[in-house]
Design brief:
Elements (H helix, E strand, L loop, with lengths): L29 H21 L37 H6 L15 H11 L3 H76 L1 H14 L11 H60 L23 H110 L9 H63 L5 H4 L3
Helix pairs in contact: 4-6, 4-7, 5-6, 5-8, 6-7, 7-8
Length: about 500
């Protein structure tokens, strides 16, 4: 602000003295003043010589005669002799004659004029006018400057409030998105845990079926297709469980990341809300507000203050990090859904395949059991027939004994009771011998047939025992595969249940 030392020409009075003003030129030079002072000193010395022995009572120190344009004068008094010395030296020393009751001439005419000029000197008034003008101008400029700065700062505060509101909305949207993502991921995590719990059922079913099939009798204790499919089913359950476990670990790790991002974005939202409220409060303040106070030290920057570029970078990075965490979590949720659906579909497909193989095994076992039962019935019939045959053979052999007895008795009688020349080898005798021989051959043949029949009957009985064992084994196998395994596998979960729904 430029300070004025005089009024402008248009603001001056129309009638102004030429010898007064804010910068009045002195009437005497310093050399002239020194000469006058020297002359006054010489005159005083001469007067002192004339006034030897005089009494110095009542003498007071007087001021020097003021220079032209000065504001104050020394009080000049008469000397002891009653004479008034109007010299400049008397004005400087104050030695003038005293004023008595007969004289009122205390000052000279020149001093009177100078006194009037000094009283009427407009320099102080002019200076006061200049100071008044300068002060009013300074106040006007100061208030104008302050108002302009206040308006500019109001605009800056409004712009800052707009930026804060924009970032506050962005942060709020990011906070809402990450909160929803945390809730959705928690739902998926619970779903994954449910799928892991449901996965225990297929494993227990497969293990129960294998344990039940291990109780089959030895002829049927074979590693058939059904057992292979059950083993595949258990291996698949183990693979799916391992996949779900690793996915659960990833989800829990991502949950921690999401919660950390949520905490940071909520903290940032709180800071921006407080900053926005502060800026709104500052915008609403003015010079007439009752809550404004002097705050010493408020012009200092805070301890943790940062530049504007860092603030913008921090806001952008915070929102981007939160969005990156949310997107990663969303991708993980999508992959989790695919993992659960695919795992459930694989398990359900393998279970259906195992059920089909078990059904085929049951059908084959049932068919074989039917054939064994039919064979057993035939075997029993053959055993009965063979026993009948053995009985007939035994009866035939017993009948041959009577014929043999008859022939041998006849021969013995002929050999015993025919004497001398009557004992000849005639045709009857030869016929009887031939009959005994034939009977013996026939009995031998029948005994051979009887022995074979008894051997066959024994074999048939052994076969019967084997058939009965096989039939019992097949019935046991059918009971395990069809009844017990079928009942256990009827509780196998569906694909939706395996997917965690």
């Amino acid at each position: 602000m430029e300070t004025l030392t005089t009024f402008p020409e248009k603001n001056k009075c129309p009638k102004v003295c030429t010898d007064i003003g804010a910068f009045k030129k002195a009437e005497k030079s310093p050399e002239q003043v020194k000469e006058e002072i020297k002359e006054a000193e010489d005159a005083k010395a001469k007067a002192a010589e004339d006034q030897k022995g005089g009494v110095d009572e009542g003498k007071e120190t007087e001021q020097l005669e003021p220079k032209p344009g000065a504001e104050h004068y020394f009080e000049i008094k008469p000397g002891p002799d009653g004479k008034v010395d109007w010299t400049p030296l008397a004005g400087m020393t104050g030695t003038r004659p005293k004023v008595n009751k007969y004289s009122i001439s205390r000052y000279s005419l020149n001093e009177w004029r100078h006194h009037n000029e000094s009283v009427l000197d407009p320099s102080v008034i002019t200076e006061s006018n200049i100071i008044d003008y300068n002060a009013k101008t300074a106040m006007m400029q100061a208030f104008g400057t302050v108002d302009k700065q206040q308006n500019d700062n109001n605009e800056r505060l409004k712009q800052k409030a707009k930026d804060l509101y924009r970032w506050k909305v962005e942060v709020e949207r990011a906070c809402k998105a990450i909160t929803e993502e945390v809730e959705l991921l928690e739902i998926e995590r619970q779903r994954l845990k449910g799928a892991s719990r449901v996965l225990m059922l297929p494993e227990s079913i497969s293990r129960e079926c294998l344990d039940l099939r291990s109780n089959r009798y030895e002829p049927d204790l074979v590693s058939d297709l059904a057992e292979q499919e059950l083993i595949k089913e258990m291996n698949l359950v183990s693979e799916v469980r391992a996949t779900l476990k690793s996915t659960l670990e990833k989800i829990e790790e991502q949950m921690l990341i999401n919660k950390a991002a949520k905490h940071r974005i909520e903290y940032d939202w709180c800071d921006k809300s407080m900053a926005y409220d502060t800026e709104t409060l500052n915008i609403g303040l003015n010079t007439k507000t009752n809550t404004i106070l002097f705050k010493p030290g408020s012009t200092r920057f805070g301890e943790f203050s940062a530049p504007l570029e860092y603030w913008e970078y921090f806001c952008r990075e915070n929102v981007q990090n939160c969005e990156a965490a949310r997107q990663k979590s969303a991708d993980l949720r999508g992959s989790l859904n695919a993992i659960l659906v695919n795992g459930g579909r694989k398990l359900r497909t393998q279970a259906d395949k195992t059920d089909i193989i078990l059904a085929e095994t049951v059908a084959i076992t049932q068919e074989l059991c039917t054939k064994l039962e039919e064979t057993l019935r035939n075997t029993l019939q053959k055993i009965a027939d063979m026993e009948s045959l053995i009985g007939e053979l035994q009866n035939s052999i017993r009948k041959m004994d009577a014929a043999m007895k008859l022939a041998q008795t006849r021969l013995d009688n002929r050999n015993t009771f025919r004497c001398h020349g009557e004992s000849v080898r005639d045709q009857p005798h030869l016929g009887l011998i031939e009959e005994v021989k034939k009977i013996h051959e026939t009995v031998t043949s029948l005994l051979g047939q009887l022995k074979k029949a008894e051997k066959v009957r024994k074999e048939l009985c052994e076969k019967r025992i084997a058939l009965e064992k096989d039939i019992a084994s097949k019935r046991k196998t059918l009971n395990i595969d069809r009844d017990r395994c079928g009942m256990v596998r009827s509780h196998y979960p569906s694909a939706l249940e395996l997917a965690g729904y």
